[in-house]
């Protein structure tokens, strides 16, 4: 049925653009220092909880009910907290291991991931259970009549798609057009030569973490606003999707991260609808696609074959 | 010489401190009654295994407090002659593996007289064999999966797997059909989508519901599964929307059921969600549950029971931070059944691990007027009390709709 198909496409695009937004952080950090930052999913989760804490404990009640005011504040707060955590993480967990073998920071990332999740579980009030997230956007659904039924689109879902795409384009423009962006690209090509050209690699690396974390923090707020609740598992779950999206798109590539996210969203919802086994198997199809891509195009959709550095 | 004097002084000081500490303890412990109890034979332990953290902690903490209340009262009333009781609450985080660790910790203590819990049927499955090895009686206020008492083939050849296991909650073999009778016969829903979370409790409940609903003439248009940690159900919602059901039955727990209900509406389906006792929770509506959603629960709402008035008053007087939630009265009863059986089993004798067998037989012989109603156990360890209640969401909480006794 057409309406069912289109509904699942809409669901897939909503989930996919959110995943893409998180995947940008994975892909940028990998592009600069070849680190798979497994704690990035937890940055997303911490942004979500941090924004919620700001909302609950700092915003006056009068403002809480006015979404046009509360939502931007919440987005800024979520991004800010994600950035703070990411900068601390970079400074204390990754920078000391900058010249260590590549496996060391990877394992540290896993450790940071568990630590962040446990910290929220232990210290956030009631975080041992799912926490309701405030409605900070227009509630409701736009129902588009479609021959044999309707295609419902949540307003919060539209918000996710629009914000994600705008931010992804902005990031692309920043990296390709600005001075700092040029410094990032230079550092990713060769850190030592970049240093000789007067670029401070440490600053560039911190900037990369800041940008990725800000996007993840925004994603965390959008996720909570869309689904009405958050729990401490969302970082692991969506982080894994986002990591997969970054690999699918060609890790290190900004367009690829967004495309990979959209592919994952669509595979999850359409696979759950039309492939044998139904929704219980939707995760399976995502990783079937990942394996297929890695077999036939190991560098991902947009990735370049890795050069061996002299 | 001066060193010796220092040691003596320290000893005297320490002794004085210990004495004064005892004194204050006695006073704080509930006045004259507690102080007057003879506890010369030591302290015995009532165990509790429940989710004190994790998604279901609201229910688990209510259970912990209710059991604590029962133990406190026993201590104040000198219920167990010669012994003081202590509640040892272990967290299972709703996870079978962690529940097994908790049960092992309790089983290794020779002073454990019985264990209250668990909340989840899946955690009970790992706890049962561990407690059985040590002959420790287990009374669950909340497990509803029928296989726990009647074995895998409970429909055709029921056989009791664990003679030390009892429960005061009636089973899903009763609760599922009870919900089906309400939804199909009373509410007139003829086309129903059934979703579950694949866990022991949810899948069993959904299966029992679906069988009875079909027998009553309803059509089950879809059987779907979701993950218990999922938060995004838009895929499932779109799938079932195409089949145009007029109700959804969800076998699972409130952390997933609340958002599922919200997303069913957001997905363009304005139909009620019904579920079992794991939905009846104060967090259900904040997480997305809607007005008109339904749930069944074992027993009758404590607020409506004459027998629970005293329990509610005592619970309020004890000033616990958390509410007693769905299983408070049943947990209080479970703990009291264990304590009363301990008294019977002890008689005038002293506690030893051999007494545990006598505790199990005393529990089996229970004839108890509890806060949640009368309790006797059948040959499987199930309660003979088949009282259930249908609840619906009004405003932002579940309110009881009708209470009834299930009849085949």
Automatic annotation (TrEMBL), chain B:
It comes from the Bacteria. InterPro entries: Leu-bd. CDD domains: PBP1_ABC_LIVBP-like (cd06342). Residues 45-394 form the Leucine-binding protein domain. Keywords: Signal. Pfam families: Peripla_BP_6 (PF13458). PROSITE patterns: PROKAR_LIPOPROTEIN (PS51257). Signal peptide: none annotated. This is Branched-chain amino acid ABC transporter substrate-binding protein. It comes from Pseudonocardia abyssalis.
